[in-house]
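Cont'd.
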Amino acid sequence: MGNLSYAIVGTGALGGFYGAKLQKAGNEVHFLVNSDYQQVIKHGLTIESKDGDFRLPQVQVYNQVEKMPSCDVVVVSIKTTQNHILTQILPPLVKDDSIVLVLQNGLGIETEIAQIVSNVNIIGGLCFLCSNKIAPGHIHHLDYGKITLGEYATNYNAVGITERMKAIFQDFENAGIEIELTEDLLLGRWKKLMWNIPYNGLSVILDATTDEIMADMYTRTLVEQLMKEVQLGAKSTGRIIPDSFIQTMLDYTVKMKPYRTSMKIDFDENRPLEVEAIVGNPLRIAAEHDVSLPLIRCLYQQLKFLDNRNRGDR
Amino acid sequence: MGNLSYAIVGTGALGGFYGAKLQKAGNEVHFLVNSDYQQVIKHGLTIESKDGDFRLPQVQVYNQVEKMPSCDVVVVSIKTTQNHILTQILPPLVKDDSIVLVLQNGLGIETEIAQIVSNVNIIGGLCFLCSNKIAPGHIHHLDYGKITLGEYATNYNAVGITERMKAIFQDFENAGIEIELTEDLLLGRWKKLMWNIPYNGLSVILDATTDEIMADMYTRTLVEQLMKEVQLGAKSTGRIIPDSFIQTMLDYTVKMKPYRTSMKIDFDENRPLEVEAIVGNPLRIAAEHDVSLPLIRCLYQQLKFLDNRNRGDR
C-alpha cells in the first residue's frame, strides 16, 4: 500500500498513465478530467503498456476541482500552455505541507506555482516518457517512463534529497515506475532542455523527425550549436553541464528510433505549442543573468510565428 | 540602333526579357537556349509585359555555345545553381575586352568568373525584376525591371563609373530598361542582400509570404536582426550601410504587395535553391574578415537541410 494520496491535474497521456500505475499499486488517487469525464466515470481507465496492459474499471474522477479532496501530492500534468488555469485549480486542492509535483517540460514553472500557492512544497519531475492518449480514458504507453525528481526552493537553490522526495520515490517505485532523485532540480531541467530545445524546435520548423535532423550535416551542427547555447544558459544560472554531456545527447539521439517530438505532435494536431516553457523561459532566465542566446532566440521567433499561424488556421 | 552585341547565357524569365528588349531596340543579340530550343527557333520569343506586349518572331538562337559568335557583352542570366557550366560556356563566347555582365543574385560570383576568364571586364548587375517564364519562349513580365550596374575589380575594389558601364547604360536606356550606375558594386550587392537574405530565407523556412513575415512581431524582429547581421557583413568588407537603410527596407516591404520570393518559388517547384550565392558566400566572405554572423548561419543550415531534402524528394 502506498503512503500518500494523489490528485492528478490533467489525466492525459502522462498524468493518466502515472496516476493509473499509482492507483493499481494501492495508492489513493483522484483524477481531474476535462473532456473525457463521462467516459472515465463509466469505464475507468485503460492502459496499454509495453510493461503490461491493465484496466482500472473504477477510478475516483472529477470534472470540478471543488469536489475533490485536498491531497498529499498534487500532480500537475497538464500541458504548460494550460497553466493559466492553475490559479483556479491549485488553491482548493492543496493543504498545508502538500506537495505540488510538477511533471511538465521547460523552465520556471515551479516559480510560477510558488506564487499561486505559498503554503506548499514544490517538487519538479522530469519525465522521459513516450505515451499517447489514443481515446478518452485510453492511454497507450509506448516506451520509457523514467522520472527524475528534484525539490524546488526559492531561486532554484539546490536543496539536496529531502524526506518528501523519498516518500514519493517509495510510492513510485512500489508502483513500478522507474524513478531517480536529483539534488539540483535546476541542473536537471537545463539538462533536459539540452535535448528539448533543439529537437522540439527544429522538428516543428523543418517538419522533420530526429533521424532526419541528425542525418544532415548542417542541422546536426546546428543542433550542437543550440546545445552549446543551452550550456551557456545553464552556466548563467551557475549550473555547469560538461561538454561530454552534449556528445552523449547527440550519440543517444542518433541511436534512437526515428522520433516525432512532442512539440511536433502538438503542432500536427493544431494544439498550442509549449514554446514559452521550453524556449521562451530559458531565454528570459538567461537574459536576467545578462546572457543572450541568439540561436535559441531565432528558434523562438520562428516557433512563435508558426504557432500563431497554426492556431489561427483552426 | 544599339552599339554593342550581346550573348544571353540563360534565356529564362530574366535573360529572355532583357535580351528581347535589347533586340527590339536594334541591338545584335544571340540567345543561348537549353530546353526551349525547338520552340524558340520556330516561334521566337513572346514577351507579355506590363509595359506593353511584343513578339520577336525571329531571334538568333543556339543550343551549343560553340556555334555562337563572340560578343561585346556576355550576359550571365542562368541561376547561380547552374554556374558550374560557366567554365565550359564563357571561354568560347568572350574575346579580349569583352564584358561579362553578371545578372545574378548573391555575392562572390564575379570573383569566380574572373578565375574562368581573365581577359575580360566584369560588370555586376542587380536586377529588381518580377517576371516568370510561363511557357517555352514565353515570358511574363509582372513588375519592376530596374538594373543597377557596378564594375568589378579584384577584391571588389570600387572603381567608379567606367566607359564600359556607360556604353551598356546607353543600350539599356535605349531599350527602355530602367538602369542606374553605382561606383561600388560590392556595396550594391550587400544592400541587395539585406533584402534577399531575410526574406528569401524565411519565406522558404516558414513557408510564408513577405506580408505574413512582416505581420508577425516575432518574425518582423527576426528580419531586422538578420538585416543587422548583413550590415555587419558589409562592414567587415569596408562597406557602411546606414541604419536608416534597414528601416527603409522594412517600410518598403510592408508596403509591397504580398510577395512570394524567388527562392520560395524555386523551392515550391523543386528546383535547387540559390543558397550558396545568397547566404553561403556572404557568410564565408564575412568569416574571411573574422566576422561571424550566427543568425545568418542558422538560416543557412536550415536552408541547406530543406534544399537537400527537397531535391532528394524529386
